[in-house]
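DM from R.C. (forwarded with permission)

"hey, sorry to bug you on a friday — could you get me a structure for this? deadline for the figure draft is monday and I only need the backbone to look sensible"
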Amino acid sequence: MFVSEFFKGVSYADNRGTITPEGRDQLANVVATHLGEAEGYIFNLRSRMRISPRARGLVSALALAHHLKFKCSQQYRRPQKSSDTPYSLARNTRPKKKQFDCKGEINIYFLDPTSLPDMEEMPEIAIEYFHAPHPGRRQFGLPIKAREWIKNNPASMPGTQRENLLQAINRGEIPGLKEDGFISPTLVHYWWRKIFVKNSYISDDPWINVEHLLRRNEMVVLAFLH
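My reply, with the result:
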């Protein structure tokens, strides 16, 4: 998917108006975070590279693009060398969590204008999203009082929902919940999704959901290349 006017209103450019490497990292993280939140997953930055002028194996519009690859946090990692210390005596004495071996990834390309065909709306970034739904790591349950608070105080994004929930706990608005208690982002997302997303995510296809969300944003103009 190619997106136009993505840089509109952002302040990640140098004096010449060119997006900086730090700006690319920050903007790509915003995209990966929002795509992950839409489906309830976390994606971590794994690599950066510059696409060659020939863009082998890719469409020609991606030639010379800056490519940032994000991997699903549930991707299996090669186990480290085992310690001689018994696990029960190690610092973390909780049982090890099972992890799903996910191959999902998000590829974000910051396009080079010299590689693009003539278009009315010139795209600035391209996004590839490959991910299939899968179970996450086992989590402890969210307190019933916190679920009720989310139901009565819905927010537009799960990150905002968790921040609002923590602030309400700190203000003592939810009796029985302490300020020092850990509230898992995954669990907040689950209950936020049950209450809010029913009206916002219209399909089981993540790409249809992404397009639907982007089309509702007046700051985003979509252009599709076939």
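R.C.: lifesaver. Residues 139-200 form one domain.
me: no worries. The chain has a mean pLDDT of 76.
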